[in-house]
Amino acid sequence: MKELLMVLDSIKLSQNIKALVITGEGGFFSSGHNLHEVIKFSDTNSKKVFSTASEIMEKLNEFPIPSIASVNGPAVAGGCQLVAACDLAISAKSAIFSASSIKLGLFCSTPGVSLVRAIGLRAANELLLTGKAISADRAYELGLVHRVVEDDKLYEASIEFAKEITQHNKDVVQLGRETLHKQASMPLMDAYAIASDAMVRNLQFSDTKQRIQSFLNRKK
Questions:
Q1: Which of 147, 134, 138, 144 is closest to 92 using CA atoms?
Q2: Confidence category of residue 38, pLDDT binned at 50, 70, 90
Q3: Domain with CATH 3.90.226.10 in the chain
Q4: Span(s) in the chain for CATH 1.10.12
Q5: Predicted confidence (pLDDT) at residue 34 exceeds the cutoff of 70
Q6: Which option is the CATH number for 1-167: 3.90.226.10, 3.40.980.10, 3.30.200.20, 1.10.10.10?
Q7: Out of 12-26, 65-79, 80-94, 126-140, least confident range
Q8: Are 87 and 38 in contact (CB under 8 A)?
Q9: Is the dihedral of CA 130, 25, 142, 136 positive or negative?
């Protein structure tokens, strides 16, 4: 987890990176916390570990670059949380998703934060209260992932997904994403106020003015 934090810190101010794709190794997207370690932790150490995981999710939420989870295998507990924390998600057909630690007497409370915000309380309950693993197709139905592809097409499809974002002006994407996240938890009128301000700012971008003018010229 600390390695992922370091990566996020190292690239967040990059002018060249326009999208971040997160995937796993060894047939797993992420299996969550190491239970062999967790069972030995003191209360202080446990809090530190869960706080570090939460910090990753908070950083992804505030990250200036859109993130894509490329789910190459099982996403369990904290792994499922990571999928939900990313802006977009694409999954291999064979991948599974679960918050299964409830079966061990440990409710996935921190993964629940990201899951509820990503797919809503009702859908999150299916994972959090039952502990059952769901398929990639079911994750798609719940809105946890946006696309499901054959396993051998995942890498290529993930890159293409990222290109759909990176084709756009980075400053526009960053402003829009930042505004979306800010307004999501606001009362309706406050949300419209900051969204209106964002559109006014967006219209001042020289690239935006040029693109609009070019479009209008083609319509003549």
A1: 147
A2: low
A3: 1-167
A4: 170-218
A5: no
A6: 3.90.226.10
A7: 12-26
A8: no
A9: negative
- Measured between alpha carbons, how far is residue 30 from residues 42, 50, 99, 160 in Å? 24, 15, 12, 22
Angle between helices 121-130 and 109-119 (to 10 degrees): 150
Q: What is the pTM of this model?
A: 0.88
- Residues with Cβ within 8 Å of 56's Cβ and at least 6 positions away in sequence, in order, are 1, 4, 5, 8, 82, 85
Question: Rounded mean pLDDT of 57-76?
Answer: 93
Give, for 70, the enclosing helix (H) or strand (E). strand 67-71
Give which of 96, 175, 99 is closest to 139, Cα–Cα: 96
**Collapsing DSSP states into helix, strand and coil, what is residue 190?**
helix
Q: How many CB atoms lie within 10 A of CB 122?
A: 9
Residue 95: per-residue pLDDT = 97
Other beta carbons within 10 Å of 168: 13
Helices (H), the chain: 2-11, 35-38, 43-62, 78-85, 109-119, 121-130, 136-142, 154-166, 170-183, 188-203, 206-219
Q: Which two tokens stand for residue 148?
A: 């499901």
What are the b/e assignments for 79-105, b being 16+ CB within 10 Å?
bbbbbbbbbbbbbbebbbbbbbbbeee
pLDDT at 83: 97
CATH number of 170-218: 1.10.12
